[in-house]
Amino acid sequence: MKKYTYAIIVLALVQFIIITEMSVVMPLAPKIAEFYNINPNRVTFLNIGYAVMGLLAPFLGFSADKIGIKKILMITVGIFTLGAFLTANSNTAVQFFLSRSLIGLGYFTLISLLIAYSSKLVPYEKLGFVSGIYKLSFAIAVFSSPIIGNIFVAKYSISELYTSIGIAMMIVLLMLIPLPKVESTDSIDFTTLKGLLKNKTAKTLMLVTFLCAVPSIYFYNYLSLFLNGNGYSQEFITLIYSIAAVGTTIAAIMIIFLSDRIGKLRMILYGFFISAVVVIPIFINVPLIIIVFMLLFGISFDILWGLLFPISSKLFKREANTFLTLLGMCMALANTFSNITAPFVNGWGGFLANVTVSSISILVAGLLLIKVTRKHVDELN
Predict the structure, then answer these.
(1) What per-residue string of b and e applies to 212-245 under the rule 16 or more CB within 10 Å gives b?
(2) Torsion angles phi and psi, residue 284, rounded to 5
(3) DSSP string spanning 171-201?
(4) What pTM did the predictor assign?
(5) Cα(280)–Cα(44) distance, rounded to whole angstroms?
(6) Three-state DSSP class for residue 37
(7) What are the structural domains, with CATH classification, of the chain?
(8) Other C-beta atoms within 10 Å of 49: how many?
(9) In this predicted model, what pLDDT tens digit does every residue of 39-87 receive, in sequence order?
């Protein structure tokens, strides 16, 4: 695996940038709403274009299977870069909506192809370690993005923030050039894609992914609005998101050192059921309780996300590029669904309703994963 160290580092940088962009929007939701003169309860509507474009991710995944994943990785990084520069020059809510749509296409494709590409380079027995590296990159991004966003909003502007993201991704695009090529799969065609859409296991994993993605909007996007509405400062909001990132960091370390030892499937199931429980007390408006359970949720929720794609790639190794981008599409569907429905749920039942939906989604997803993997326990551990 040592000969692929450079590739893993570069892909971890890609992960860092796309997660930084995604995470920086969450704690800045009140500021973005203010900047574009939007009702704070409706600010997530700006993310619908970001999510909808993610529905195109399977077409890029299919292309990766046909013409080579490295080429599609570079094309997708280029799309993300373009979207960042266009967002930097958005002066209206409509421009912001359209520009982040390109970023969304890049995000939902790359989040899938990073693991798909890695699964071609390293054996499944080591994939947990590599996934942990990417999750650590994710954690650093989540930890630093609220701080980065706060600095840019306080001293610079949202435009300069996105210009910086675009420049960083353009540098990484050049770093992708020396990456090793992975052979394409000429036998993959649209019949294979249709077969995946009819496969019961594939459909169940797609539903699991959809349900896991719901809390990303229902919980994380509305947490900052909940805290802001209860009189907490932007500094405290930043602290809470940073604590979640500490949990993500712990999850990454656990995945790196434990997942290949105690079993990826066993570990992900712990993540499902713990996160479904610990998300609920965060609604209690007590700072210490929010801090403690946010840390626990950060650990457990990111354990499940850190292992879901590696486990899925094992079940569909031949069609990994196409299938994992189908999972990315399901994330985008969930994102679109949640951005449309969450404002109404939040308006009806407040943050407690959002938390309840998040908990139930995670719990049902965990039960479905048990059902679909019960014949593959030894293989997936």
Answers:
(1) bbbbbbbbbbbbbbbbbeeebebeebbbbbbbbb
(2) -65, 125
(3) HHHHHTTTSPP----TT--HHHHHHHHH-HH
(4) 0.83
(5) 22
(6) coil
(7) 2-380 (1.20.1250.20)
(8) 22
(9) 666 666 667 777 778 888 888 877 777 778 888 899 999 999 999 999 8
